Amino acid sequence: MSIWRKLNTLFRASAQEPVARLVDANDIRIFEQELRDAEQAIARSKRELAHLMAEKKRLEQDNTGLQSAINKREQQASQALAQNEETLALELANLIAEDEAFLQRQQQQHARLQQQESELRRQLRESGRALKHFHSEMRLAKANRHAEQVTRQLRGHATGLHSHMEDLNVSADRIRARQTEAEYVEAALTELDQEQRNGGLDARLKAAGIDNGANDGAKVLARLRAAQAPGEHTDNSQPQP
């Protein structure tokens, strides 16, 4: 049976997991509601304290009035005794005894109310300080949650920005490659146009019988013959052995 109890425990724990995740996902909302509940509880406690203080004030007034009545009857009883009115003095003494007993009970009730007031005041002070602390915790929790959201957004933006930068680099490289290729093509076309223009000019100069300054084989041979001619003349003038 032990294994079945463990399985039952596992099923109950598994059933609690979605609830725990739901609580974790809404922890700040729950915290806010708990703060509102605590504020309402403090407000109710303040009203209870106000009623308690009002009851204590009423008892104080009743006790003051009752003490005044006792003092007056004591004076009356003393006067009755002075006039040898024993029966009247005894009646007054019985009333005084009843009033004193009632006054004692009310004084005890007043003391209990005073003790309850002091305790409730202490609890309200501590609860007020704790509530301020929890409000600060709430602001900090919201700030941290906002910071987490901003961090996630910035991380996503940074990833997207990095991708954009890579795309821009690829596009810039392609544009530079096309521009370089276009420059090479333009230079080649310019070179071809120059060669074509120079070739046409040489043909027209040759047709007109104008030397264009270009070197050819005939000119090279003529130059060599001119260089050899003085040497040959010198060799012919030497005597024969």
TrEMBL record:
The entry's keywords: Coiled coil
Pfam families referenced in this protein's UniProt entry, alphabetically: PspA_IM30
Protein family membership: Belongs to the PspA/Vipp/IM30 family.
Phosphoprotein among keywords: no
Keyword Coiled coil carried by entry: yes
Name of the protein in question: Phage shock protein A
Coiled-coil portions: 28-126
Signal peptide location: none
Organism: Marinobacter fuscus
Top-rank taxon: Bacteria
